[in-house]
């Protein structure tokens, strides 16, 4: 978008002066039926963003929200004007839009592709009808940019503006069935002129060079020519993929982080939430993200309500990493030595219900503190929609085989869709990628087992792709170098976001910390197969050999050639105080339980993921001091 093509000033840090924090959240999901836009789940986005900002210290009175019927063109403009008039020098501003996006014919000739990007208010129909509706209610990039520039000048160089657009503008060539935000339909005719008007008295975006303007950081859900798919949050509710990724990353920050670090973590999450999308960031990457030392992800909270059944409600939820199965300690301010233990049985975004294990009744007149003593991973849940015609006998066979609730069969926010096309049974991800297909005329018992195995492999790989565990004990780095396939000592360059099939690479692991660790590297392929790259068991090496002392580094002594399949590849560098015997688990698919009691928590978790009944299972999170996992994501292309 042109509003971000300005030259941004380079500042050494954000918010050296103390200002207020303001936010505007715009969520349009329930578009009018006559406008022909499909409904999306923007209201859930609003809740995620608002709760995250509250936990980051934003005052509720300074968070403005407008949604659906309020978020017309004029409603959005009015909200921007109110925000512009309210802010002052050194303030911090967060603006978030969740809704549809659309490309519109450029009027002033400053776009190479002759198309502007625009956000779609509630009262902007999908279709261009010459002389009737030509996009008058769209809000173009220049219009939004003019407001942003006014705010940047007003708050000055010690303030900051963050803009998040969880929408998209087109989707050429996309064939997925998932719910997406945007359209390939262009508003206008490229060969003609439209009568779209712009805001009166708005100035064009000007260079920030030499001006006392606040730095701007902008996050986008996808590139201008991609659809932006929805995903599901930790409660199983549909939500924008960028919104979920960004709020999750923000909530997990427990130390200072730059915008570049935040964006790289967002890209990592998006790589499994919406693997065909390429989220975008524009701004100064090495500047600090908000007050990133203040985390929304807290280990401590309060009891905020007592229930008649004896359970209590705490002010920590999934935004703080608290899921069912987590364990808590509750203490009384008046009796600090008295500890009450409990288990989380339900968790929302910012609250959780706890059942007490001790036979002690809480007194509603007392003030209770809460400490999380054991976290549980989010249960493994994969939503599946059966799109086979209900009149076909195969529909019921699939429902029974995959334990699909019939009422969920039309869920457009499912992760996997079951299709029947010309006697071929297909499992397709929401972005249109097939993970399994077979001819239904083949032996039924054979493909039924294969389809269950494909679902299990998908569940396992999705869990591992998003698995993170950070320990202050370890400080390692994983690098990938492009090398000459015939001479590994000839390093050509560093691997970027994409790598071509046939390229040879070398892995390098560096210990920058003060503690040594054993290390392993797991490779999760686009087709969900999981390989152990290090230790190199096939070369006769053992896990005990892969240990790095502080200051040491390791490089593979052999080239690794990148091969099919194309798609997003995920590497996991796993650090531990003891050697991990992961190859045994992979080889036996988790069935070798001999000595399982002596497994580390990570090995036990890894073994459990191979079981066919993992869906909905509770998995205890590794203790922080036990394990650390570093991810590296790249896309394999032809």
Please describe what this structure looks like.
- The protein contains 9 helices and 35 strands.
- It has 638 residues and is of the alpha+beta class.
- The chain folds into 4 domains: 2-282, Rossmann fold, CATH 3.40.50.1460; 300-377, Thrombin, subunit H (Beta Barrel), CATH 2.40.10.340; 384-457, no CATH class; 476-637, Coagulation Factor XIII, Chain A, domain 1.
- The strands form 8 sheets. Strands 2-1-3-7-9-12 form a 6-stranded mixed beta sheet, with helices on both faces. Strands 13-14-17-16-15-18 form a 6-stranded antiparallel beta barrel.
- It is globular.
- 40% of the residues are buried.
- The model is unreliable at 1-17, 109-113, 170-176 and 190-210 (pLDDT under 50).
Q: What's the CATH first level of the largest domain? A: Alpha Beta
Strand order of the largest sheet: 2-1-3-7-9-12
The low-confidence runs, each spanning 5 or more residues with pLDDT under 50, are 1-17, 109-113, 170-176, 190-210
Distance between the termini: 29 Å
Number of strands: 35
The CATH level-2 architecture of the largest domain is identified as 3-Layer(aba) Sandwich
What is the general shape?
globular
Enter the CATH topology name of the largest domain: Rossmann fold
Radius of gyration: 26 Å
- Report the portion of residues in β strands: 25-35%
Number of alpha- plus pi-helical segments: 9
Relative helix content: 10-25%
Q: What can be said about the biggest beta sheet?
A: 6 strands, mixed
Structural class computed from helices and strand pairing = alpha+beta
Query: How many domain units?
Result: 4
Mean pLDDT: 82
């Amino acid at each position: 978008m042109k509003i971000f093509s300005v030259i941004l000033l380079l500042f050494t840090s954000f918010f050296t002066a103390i200002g207020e924090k303001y936010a505007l959240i715009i969520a349009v999901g329930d578009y009018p039926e006559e406008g022909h836009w499909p409904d999306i789940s923007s209201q859930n986005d609003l809740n995620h963003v608002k709760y995250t900002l509250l936990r980051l210290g934003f005052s509720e009175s300074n968070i403005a929200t407008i949604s659906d019927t309020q978020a017309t063109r004029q409603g959005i403009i009015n909200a921007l004007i109110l925000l512009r008039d309210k802010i002052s020098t050194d303030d911090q501003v967060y603006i978030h839009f969740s809704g549809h996006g659309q490309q519109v014919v450029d009027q002033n000739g400053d776009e190479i592709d002759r198309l502007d990007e625009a956000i779609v208010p509630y009262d902007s129909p999908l279709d261009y009808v010459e002389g009737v509706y030509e996009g008058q209610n769209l809000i173009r990039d220049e219009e939004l940019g003019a407001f942003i520039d006014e705010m940047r000048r007003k708050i000055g160089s010690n303030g900051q503006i963050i803009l998040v657009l969880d929408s998209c503008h087109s989707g050429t060539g996309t064939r997925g069935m998932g719910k997406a935000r945007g359209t390939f339909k262009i508003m206008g005719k490229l060969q003609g002129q439209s009568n779209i008007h712009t805001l009166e008295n708005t100035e064009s975006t000007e260079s920030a060079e030499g001006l006392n303007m606040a730095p701007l950081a902008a996050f986008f859900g996808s590139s201008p020519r991609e659809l932006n798919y929805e995903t599901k949050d930790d409660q199983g509710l549909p939500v924008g993929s960028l919104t979920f990724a960004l709020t999750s990353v923000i909530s997990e920050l427990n130390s200072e982080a730059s915008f570049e670090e935040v964006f790289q973590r967002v890209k990592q999450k998006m790589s499994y939430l919406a693997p065909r999308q390429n989220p975008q960031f524009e701004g100064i990457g090495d500047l600090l993200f908000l007050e990133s030392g203040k985390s929304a992800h807290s280990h401590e909270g309060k009891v905020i309500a007592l229930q008649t059944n004896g359970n209590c409600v705490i002010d920590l939820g999934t935004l703080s990493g608290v899921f069912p199965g987590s364990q808590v300690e509750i203490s009384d301010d008046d009796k600090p030595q008295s500890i009450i233990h409990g288990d989380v049985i339900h968790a929302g975004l910012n609250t959780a219900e706890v059942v007490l294990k001790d036979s002690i009744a809480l007194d509603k007149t007392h003030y209770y503190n809460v400490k999380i003593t054991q976290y549980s991973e989010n249960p493994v849940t994969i939503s599946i929609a059966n799109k086979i015609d209900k009149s076909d006998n195969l529909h019921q066979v699939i429902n029974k085989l995959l334990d699909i609730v019939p009422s969920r069969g039309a869920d457009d926010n499912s992760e996997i869709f079951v299709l029947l096309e010309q006697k071929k049974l297909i499992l397709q991800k929401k972005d249109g990628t097939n993970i399994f297909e077979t001819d239904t005329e083949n032996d039924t018992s054979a493909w039924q087992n294969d389809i269950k195995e494909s679902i299990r492999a998908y569940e396992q790989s999705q869990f591992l792709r998003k698995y993170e565990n950070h320990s202050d004990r370890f400080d390692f780095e994983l690098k990938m170098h492009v090398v000459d396939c015939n001479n590994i000592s000839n390093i050509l360059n560093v691997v970027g976001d994409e790598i071509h099939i046939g390229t040879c690479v070398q892995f390098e692991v560096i210990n920058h910390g003060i503690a040594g660790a054993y290390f392993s590297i797991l490779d999760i392929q686009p087709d969900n197969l999981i390989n152990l790259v290090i230790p190199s068991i096939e070369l006769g090496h053992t896990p005990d050999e892969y240990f790095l002392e502080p200051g040491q580094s390791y490089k593979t002594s052999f080239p690794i050639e990148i091969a099919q399949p194309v798609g997003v590849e995920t590497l996991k560098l796993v650090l531990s105080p003891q050697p991990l015997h992961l190859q045994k688990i992979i080889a036996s698919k988790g069935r070798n339980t001999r000595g399982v009691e002596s497994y580390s928590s990570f090995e036990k978790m890894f073994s459990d993921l191979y079981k066919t009944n993992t869906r909905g299972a509770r998995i205890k999170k590794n203790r922080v001091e036990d394990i650390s996992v570093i991810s590296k994501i790249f896309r394999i292309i032809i």
